[in-house]
Every structure is written in structure tokens, then in C-alpha cells.
Design brief:
Elements: E1 8-12, H1 16-28, E2 32-36, H2 42-48, E3 53-57, H3 65-72, E4 80-84, H4 89-97, E5 102-105, H5 110-127, E6 135-138, E7 143-146, E8 149-152, H6 155-166, H7 174-181, H8 192-205, E9 214-217, E10 221-224
Parallel strand pairs: 1-2, 1-3, 3-4, 4-5
Antiparallel strand pairs: 6-7, 7-8, 9-10
């Protein structure tokens, strides 16, 4: 770690002994920690102070970790590591589909947890656009500047582009994008995302026709290729 302000880790775990051990190991690695043991208290704790990463247990009193992660992803891109005793592949896929960045199964090594935290924070910090990047976003005006040219977007197009831009190179499934664009749970056709992506692509192609800015990943979703 450097002399920068320590990154704050929110530990959401209802087993006090395990939560304490995780906090001790993460603090020894140079992070600050907070612990929450009830799923119903997570949203208020995140809103009170946005953490740098959340270690989120799947089975919690009050509220399930899946629901917490799903709701978080409608308004925040904070990195999330889901922790569970359910080791079946389908559970891992469900966790990642909801927007978790990683998944670790109990019992696990606390040193492995620290390593996972470091890896995710390193990746997410460098995946953000540097100042020299060809794309910048203006949230107040729903505009983007791409290679020096300003592009106008509708609010829904801008939210989609912003979601992809939070993690350039990461594949976002249609379901995850739908949750980000329509957090009120309204019923929307499956291919609505494809229609919005097509319109955004056309706007980028008018500036750089040879660049495939938004790529389709067959059977998985879309990613921003910058």
C-alpha cells in the first residue's frame, strides 16, 4: 500500500467471528473496514459512506445477498465479492450475472480473500478511463466527447453507454443492462437493449466508421472496446 488514503472495505457477514477475522486480515493488508451483519442495514451503510469494495455474504438475515447486489447495481458500480457456502456452478453464475465482480466459497483462506480484494481493486482502478482516453462523458448534458467530437444521446442511451464505460472491456449481459436501464422492473422486450446499442453504434460510426466501439459477445452480451 502507498501513502494514499486507505481504501474502505465494507464486510457484510452475519457470522461475527468470521467478520472479525476478515476485518483483521484486510486491515493488516492496509485497508480500513466496516462490518454489517444484517442484510437490511446494507443500503443505509453504503449510502452513508460509499466503500471502495464490498465483501457480501449470500445468506444473510433480513435480506438475501442476491437482492442486495441486484439493487446495488441499479445505482452503483462499487466492486462486490460475493461469499457463500453454496458451491454449485449455477450459484456462482447467478452471482456474477447479478453484477458481482468475484465469488468466493466457504470455507476459504483469508489470505486468498485479501488476494482477491487486491486483484479486483487493481483491475477496477485501471479499467477506468485515463484522461488521455478517446471517450469522456458529460452526465449533466447526456453527451459524450469521442475523439474530440461531441455526441448527443437520449437519457436511456447515455445510461447504457455509461454502464459499459464503467468497466471498459467487461462483458455486460442483457439482463444486467436491463436492470441498470429500467430499475423499476417494468416489462420490456428482450431485444430492447440491442435496439439501443444499434443506435449508439451508429453515432460512433459517424465519427469513426472503422472502429467497433461497442462489441457484441455471442451468447454473453456487450462490451465497450476502448
Amino acid at each position: 500500500m502507498t501513502n494514499e488514503t486507505p481504501i474502505d472495505i465494507l464486510i457484510v457477514e452475519d457470522e461475527p467471528k468470521l467478520a472479525s477475522l476478515m476485518a483483521d486480515f484486510l486491515q493488516a493488508a492496509g485497508y480500513t473496514t466496516r462490518c454489517v451483519g444484517d442484510g437490511l442495514a446494507v443500503a443505509a451503510e453504503v449510502e452513508r459512506q460509499m466503500p471502495g469494495l464490498i465483501v457480501l455474504d449470500l445468506m444473510l438475515p433480513g435480506r438475501d445477498g442476491r437482492d442486495i447486489c441486484r439493487d446495488l447495481r441499479t445505482w452503483s458500480d462499487v466492486p462486490v465479492i460475493m461469499v457463500t457456502a453454496q458451491v454449485e456452478e449455477v450459484d456462482r453464475l447467478i452471482g456474477l450475472e447479478l453484477g458481482a465482480d468475484d465469488y468466493i466459497c466457504k470455507p476459504f483462506s483469508l489470505l486468498e480473500l485479501v488476494a482477491r480484494v487486491k486483484a479486483i481493486l487493481r483491475r477496477t482502478r485501471f479499467e477506468r478511463f485515463p484522461e488521455s482516453a478517446p471517450l469522456s462523458l458529460d452526465e449533466e448534458c447526456f453527451q459524450a466527447t469521442f475523439r474530440g467530437v461531441t455526441i448527443e444521446f437520449t437519457p436511456i442511451e447515455f445510461r447504457l453507454l455509461k454502464t459499459l464505460a464503467t468497466r471498459p472491456g467487461r462483458v455486460f449481459s442483457r439482463d444486467v443492462l436491463m436492470d441498470r436501464l429500467y430499475p423499476d422492473g417494468r416489462i420490456v422486450e428482450d431485444r430492447t437493449i440491442d435496439s439501443h446499442v444499434k443506435k449508439i453504434r451508429r453515432k460512433f460510426e459517424s465519427i469513426a466508421p472503422d472502429e467497433d466501439v461497442i462489441q457484441s459477445v455471442y451468447g454473453a452480451g456487450f462490451r465497450l472496446a476502448l
